[in-house]
Amino acid sequence: MGLKEDFEEHAEKVKKLTASPSNEDLLILYGLYKQATVGPVTTSRPGMFSMKERAKWDAWKAVEGKSTDEAMSDYITKVKQLLEAEASSASA
């Protein structure tokens, strides 16, 4: 399986987590996903009254230097960590 297919598979797996990831984890995933699928940020930073959009933009901007492959790989790693954490908490 290629990196792109693995990435797409993990993008689906993350939707099936029974417990919602923390906001921090969601922002990390968002930034990596956008970097992997869109590339570097091309929009201006949202205003201070759009806190949610601003946080998402900041998360994307934070990974701006990563290549598509790096972002995909990091996204897969993060999803695996979340899946493992969920599995270990379910078995505990």
Q: Helices and strands: which structural class? A: mainly alpha
The overall pLDDT, averaged over residues, is: 94
**Proportion in helices:** 55-70%
- CATH topology, by name, is Acyl-CoA Binding Protein
- State the CATH class: Mainly Alpha
Query: CATH architecture, please?
Result: Up-down Bundle
Reading the helices and strands in chain order gives HHHH
Radius of gyration: 14 Å
How much of the sequence lies in strands comes to under 5%
The biggest sheet, with number of strands, parallel, antiparallel or mixed sense and barrel status, is:
none
Keywords: Lipid-binding, Transport
Family: Belongs to the ACBP family.
GO molecular function: fatty-acyl-CoA binding
Protein name: Acyl-CoA-binding protein
Short description:
The chain has 92 residues and is an all-alpha fold. Helix content is 70%, strand content 0%. The chain has a single domain (3-91), classed as Up-down Bundle (Acyl-CoA Binding Protein).
Outline the structure in words.
This protein is mostly helical. It has a single domain, classed as Acyl-CoA Binding Protein. Helices cover 70% and strands 0% of the residues. The protein has four helices and no strands. It has helices at 3-15, 23-37, 51-62, 68-91. α2 (23-37) crosses α3 and α2 packs antiparallel against α4 (68-91). The chain is flat and about 45 Å long. The model has no long low-confidence stretch (mean pLDDT 94). Pfam families: ACBP. Binds medium- and long-chain acyl-CoA esters with very high affinity and may function as an intracellular carrier of acyl-CoA esters. InterPro entries: Acyl-CoA-binding_prot_CS, Acyl-CoA-binding_protein, Acyl-CoA-binding_sf, FERM/acyl-CoA-bd_prot_sf. Residues 3-88 form the ACB domain. One of its GO terms (molecular function) is fatty-acyl-CoA binding.
